[in-house]
Amino acid sequence: MNKRDMKFETLCLHADENARDEWGTVNQPICQAATFVHKGTDVPSEFSYSRLSNPTRAHLENTVAVLEGGAAAFAFSTGMAALNCVMQLFTPPAHFIASEDLYGGSLRLFNCLKNLGYTFDFVDTGDICAVKKLINKNTKAIYCETPSNPLMQVSDIAALADVAKKNGLMLIVDNTFLTPYYQQPVKLGADIVIHSGTKYLGGHNDTLAGFAVVNSAGLAEKIKYIANTNGSCLAPFDCFLIERGIKTLPVRMDRISSNAEKIAHWLRSRKDVKKVYYAGFEDHAGYAVSRKQSTGFGGMISFEAESKALAEKILNNVKVFQYAESLGGVESLITYPMMQTHKDLSEEERNRRGINDRFLRISTGIENIEDLLADLEQAFEK
Ligand SMILES: *Cc1c(COP(=O)(O)O)cnc(C)c1O
Question: Which of 31, 270, 275, 330 could form a disulfide with 55 if both were Cys (CB 3.0 to 4.6 A apart)?
Answer without folding.
Answer: 31
